[in-house]
UniProtKB/TrEMBL annotation:
The lineage of its organism: Bacteria, Bacillati, Actinomycetota, Actinomycetes, Mycobacteriales. PROSITE patterns: HTH_LUXR_2. Residues 207-272 form the HTH luxR-type domain. This is Transcriptional regulator MalT. GO terms for biological process: regulation of DNA-templated transcription. It comes from Corynebacterium occultum. Pfam families: GAF (PF01590), GerE (PF00196). It comes from the Bacteria. Keywords: DNA-binding, Transcription, Transcription regulation. InterPro entries: GAF (IPR003018), GAF-like_dom_sf (IPR029016), HTH-type_RamA-like (IPR049651), Sig_transdc_resp-reg_C-effctor (IPR016032), Tscrpt_reg_LuxR_C (IPR000792), WH-like_DNA-bd_sf (IPR036388). One of its GO terms (molecular function) is DNA binding. Coiled coil: none annotated.
Length: 275
């Protein structure tokens, strides 16, 4: 496996573990704008193995055309998608499906799917988890692309050191968020600033010049969101009110041009404000 295939495999496995959803899949965007399901976990039949999807059709086609997540609770009866692949879906026995775009440097690289074999609706928590996994995978693919652009490809990577895999990146991100929360609870101002400097050093290797300035409190809220906390949980962690958390989130989303809290986390990672 090359680095991208390994990153996708880790994403699919971790997503299944995190959500308990039985089926996870990844479809790569081909040069002619078709999608091909190239990796999967939990499929019962070969009906979807390496299936090629024509542009604009099915759940994946809608995801690519809108560049946004799409979910259907009854695939064969859903009105928001076309139905060229109903037979393959029926052969596999899938009912509910959620699909999220994987976008690297503003270009769609593929689509991340989860699905279940029973007629149940996949809720917002599942959609959020798939979206967060897609954002993590985007960062892994972006790192791999940057390494391939360096002279000597893998030789250049060896000189710079081993590239962390998806699970290791998640550990760094979790540590960064928890460190910010720890700093938030420290009364000693000088010690708190030292901890915040350490947080900055964790993202400084990938930091780019920021056109958007986020305050320390805004970063704290985003760190909580990155850990999967609700507004109430973030408020308890930070010792502030839930409405104040909402206010910080609105400010962050406005600054970053994000429509959801998880888009804001991804945007902050892209500018190097979060690992």
């Amino acid at each position: 496996m090359n680095e991208d295939e390994e990153a996708i495999r880790v994403a699919l496995t971790s997503l299944k573990t995190a959500t308990g959803i039985p089926v996870t899949m990844y479809a790569s965007l081909l040069a002619d704008n078709r999608l091909q399901i190239t990796q999967w976990v939990g499929l019962r039949t070969p009906a979807l193995h390496n299936l090629i999807l024509e542009p604009g059709v099915g759940v994946g086609g809608r995801v690519v055309s809108t560049r946004r997540p799409v979910g259907v609770s009854d695939y064969t009866r859903a009105s928001v998608i076309s139905h060229e692949y109903d037979r393959a879906i029926q052969d596999e026995g899938l009912h509910s499906i959620v699909a999220v775009p994987v976008i690297v440097q503003r270009e769609i690289r593929g689509v991340l799917y989860v699905g279940v074999h029973s007629p149940v609706r996949l809720g917002d928590k599942v959609i959020e988890e798939v979206t967060m996994t897609a954002r993590s995978l985007e960062q892994d693919l972006a790192v791999n692309s940057a390494l391939r652009r360096t002279e000597g490809g893998r030789a250049g990577a060896n000189k710079q050191g081993r590239v962390m895999n998806g699970a290791e990146w998640e550990q760094v991100r979790s540590t960064h968020s928890k460190l910010r929360m720890l700093a938030n609870r420290v009364d000693d101002e000088s010690l708190r600033k030292e901890l915040e400097v350490l947080c900055d050093q964790m993202v400084s290797p990938v930091r780019v010049k920021q056109s958007t300035k986020l305050s320390a409190r805004e970063l704290d809220v985003l760190s909580c969101v990155a850990l999967g906390h609700t507004n109430v949980e973030a408020a308890e962690e930070m010792g502030i009110g839930a409405e104040t958390v909402k206010s910080y989130l609105r400010s962050v989303m406005r600054k970053l041009g994000a429509h959801t809290r998880y888009e804001a986390v991804n945007a902050a990672r892209r500018i190097g404000a979060l690992p």
